[in-house]
Design a protein that fits this description.
- The complex is a heterotrimer of chains A (101), B (184) and C (303).
- Chain A is α+β, with helices and mostly antiparallel strands and 101 residues long.
- Chain A has four helices and four strands.
- Chain A has one domain: Alpha-Beta Plaits, CATH 3.30.70.20.
- With 184 residues, chain B is α+β, with helices and mostly antiparallel strands.
- Chain B has five helices and five strands; from the N terminus they run αααβββααββ.
- In chain B, strands 1, 2, 3, 4 and 5 form a five-stranded antiparallel sheet that branches.
- Chain C contains 14 helices and seven strands.
- The chains are: A alpha+beta (101), B alpha+beta (184), C alpha/beta (303).
- Chains in contact: A-B, A-C, B-C.
- Chains A and C meet through α3 and α4 of A and β7, α7, α9 and α10 of C.
Chain lengths: 101, 184, 303
Amino acid sequence: MEYLSRKQKMKKISRGFKMVEIEIDEDACVGCGSCVDDCPNNVYQMNEETWKTTVVNADDCMACLSCHEICPSQAMTHRDIHVAKRLYIDRKVNDVLEKII
Amino acid sequence: MDMEMEEIRGTFKPEIIPRETGGKIGDYEAALHVLMKFVGSMSSALEQVSGRGANAIVYQAGKRMGHDAAKMLEKTDDLEKALNEMGEVLGVEFYFEMWKPKGQEGYTIESGDKTEVKLLFMDCVVRQTLRRTGLPQKGPLCYLLYGYMVGAVEEVMSIKGKLDIDHVGPNACLKTLTIKWGGK
Amino acid sequence: MVTIALETLASCSGCEISILDLHEDLLKLLEKAELVYAPVLMDVKELPDNIDIAIVSGSVRNEENKERLEELRTKSSILIAYGTCACYGGITGMADLYTRDEVTSRTYSDNPSTESAPLPNEVVPELLSIVHPAADFTEIDGFIPGCPPKEQLTGDILIPLINNEAPDVPKKSVCADCQREMEHVEYDKIHRRVEGSPEDGKCFLSQGYVCLGSVTLGRCGGLCTDAGVPCHGCGGPSLDVLREPSHDIYNGVIKRIAHLSNMPEKDVEKQMYDLGHVIYGFVIGSTIMEDKLVSKIPQLVKK
């Protein structure tokens, strides 16, 4: 059953995906600007007054999550994006992660 | 540490081997992770020994695999159709999609005898292998995948192609596929 | 009434105090819940049966801790490891930097400020060979790291729990709570925490101090950085460090410092000091952190 639904997903390849919703937690942002530097598609820019990151180009976001990787305070949330599998993570670790309250 | 290795014993007949050879999900996980470790180690050793040459060797190996994988697919001249067809086969092994920046009209860009299209690779077993041991992306293993992709495209469309990597990330990698019309 | 038990293993009892620190919110807790066992607070000596929520703090250091933990598991429906010691070994895990004999001789026979005495062998339970977090011996249903978890967090978790609701608390790193601003500043020397006087408002990493905030689980309000002290990592590793096999506290801090200061990573590594206490101080007991291929913990512990 799962294989069939994957096949159906494959048919949508040429349609691309819909725009990504990105939310920034301004309290968490420390103003390091690393996401602005790292993003290949210039999705972010530093707000000159508050010196926090703002989203200026969500349309070009391809959900590579390089920004998540570099952000020291996990300040951004990407909604409704493709979840790539991470099978290299131990199930035991995933189990503990789920149980952390 | 919960390393309880219990030995499993069973009876073998040549025609019927025990069900336990199938293993459980934990066995698959352990095997996968060890394999990732081994493949990562081989890839890094190859890189240290042959440097950039490693990428080229591995790329050719990947291309051969790609050609074989795509032999059963319907041949076509339309790039988007080809990618759709390939997605059904290759996409199960690593999910990819076409991508375009907002300002661009269509997915493909024609320029002279070349056509370019940007591809977004999401699920990628190579990325997962590299992230298991912290190896950098864009090494020989990534080239294996490029070869695979290019080989498949070449087989389906009977053209020459190349793949360039634009950006690597934890959830998706962006690559540009360039195909050159005019036969092989 | 939901029954709650607080068990203290090898603990400083700071975690029990943090639950008491709910102050008036304790009344909200006690509206629906009843404390049936808490050695630090009540004179109940033995664990009652049918505990709904058991909260265990402290690590498993000796045989008695292990037995208590196992008994707690059989008598409770939900067992929560509360505090960094119960989750990852915590401060008590640093005992693993020394052999068990070194620990006991320092305490009893070779202590510089007491008269030498033999190791007690009656009544006192025997030490296990290493320090263990609670999860090494039993199935744990929930982890609340923190040293101790701050009362705001505890209230936001326990009160929904006893009302059978899911708690909704953030899970970001200390940087998210910290008010300092992180800047890219070029420098080539790392300072020890006692050197110099850090500026307010500016990230410690940007000033050349080793601060573990970016690789530590937060929800602590950034109290230390607010008071001028770089983060020691008492909340345990941040979720991304726990999750990714190639991410570790050590290489996380090094990468962050190298990224901000433009120093090559090798130079940053050379200047790192006292890994066992500064970098891994709170997670030495954790098998997840120790098992990572990039972890330096196996090189530091003596078994």
